[in-house]
Amino acid sequence: MAAIWILDVISWAAIPVGAFAFIHALLQRPDAYSAADRMSKPAWLGITAGALAALLIFRFSGTGWIFWMAGLVAALVYIVDVRPKLIEVQRGQRW
User: Fold this and answer.
1) Which residues are listed as membrane-spanning (predicted)?
2) How far, in whole angstroms, is CA 52 from its chain's centroid?
3) pTM over 0.85
4) What is the C-alpha to C-alpha distance for residues 22 and 26, in angstroms, rounded to an integer?
């Protein structure tokens, strides 16, 4: 019984992660993506929107867990890899 509750908490906790990734991608300048040597802004908007949709539709404990996992991985790749590069490019060199 507790295992099901834990899986539900994990499923619900992933939704704000996906929402954060999508909102951050939405608010960045388009030229920052090319300056950071990453895919274009529309590509990342599509990836993070798809990730958020997968996190909202599927559950970790359900039959569509593979889609949920793919959505979480896509959102985390954006947060861990793309977001720091965008921040670095837009902030500029720090001395």
Assistant:
1) 6-27, 39-58, 64-82
2) 7
3) yes
4) 6
